[in-house]
Design a protein that fits this description.
Elements (H helix, E strand, L loop, with lengths): L4 H13 L3 E2 L2 E5 L6 E6 L4 E5 L9 H14 L4 E5 L12 H10 L1 E2 L11 H5 L11 E5 L7 E6 L5 E5 L4
Parallel strand pairs: 4-5, 6-9
Antiparallel strand pairs: 1-2, 3-4, 7-8, 8-9
């Protein structure tokens, strides 16, 4: 049995979207980040709905253009809409994204149980270099809106953590 054309098109769209990297964290795609809120295939145009990680994300328009460009390479005419009504949380990130963050040297955000962060979850951040949880928060403000600066007492390294967002 043959795969329907619309299913093949949707698969190609998702493969293309997975090539679009987050400009601030280039080891992650916007798919892995959980920024794709939906894909709609219309007769003459494709609509991609993205939700930003932060409302004031300075990279949002770059991401929007990169999505259009990547889909255009595949011969797909796309309209990319930003939907601020869809709440992005770090729970939207894939397991692969969390692994890639750690290999990149960024501590991934903790999983949030029941939409609530416990004090222990906030304080027991694992160092991406030595994997110790003997770490402390140095500054809630890192190099970008989504990062905080931490210090590991075990390996004496400073590192950034992707902030948990509920």
């Amino acid at each position: 049995m043959e795969t329907p054309v619309s299913e093949l098109l949707e698969n190609n769209i998702w493969l293309a979207l997975n090539q679009v990297k987050d400009p601030e964290i280039p080891v992650l795609s916007i798919v892995e980040m959980g920024m794709i809120a939906g894909v709609k295939i219309h007769e003459h145009k494709t609509e991609v709905i993205i939700t930003p990680t932060f409302v004031g994300c300075p990279a949002l328009h770059v991401i929007q253009q990169n999505v259009k460009d990547e889909l255009h390479k595949q011969g797909i005419d796309a309209e990319v809409k930003i939907d601020l009504s869809i709440k992005w949380t770090t729970e939207r990130m894939t397991a692969e994204a969390r692994e890639k963050l750690e290999k990149f040297g960024l501590a991934p955000p903790p999983h949030i149980s029941d939409d609530e962060l416990t004090e222990e979850q906030l304080n027991r951040v694992r160092c991406p270099f030595c994997h110790s949880t003997d770490t402390t928060l140095r500054s809630a403000f890192g190099s970008t809106l989504c990062r905080a600066i931490r210090f590991c007492f075990n390996c004496k390294q400073g590192f950034e953590q992707f902030k948990p967002v509920t």
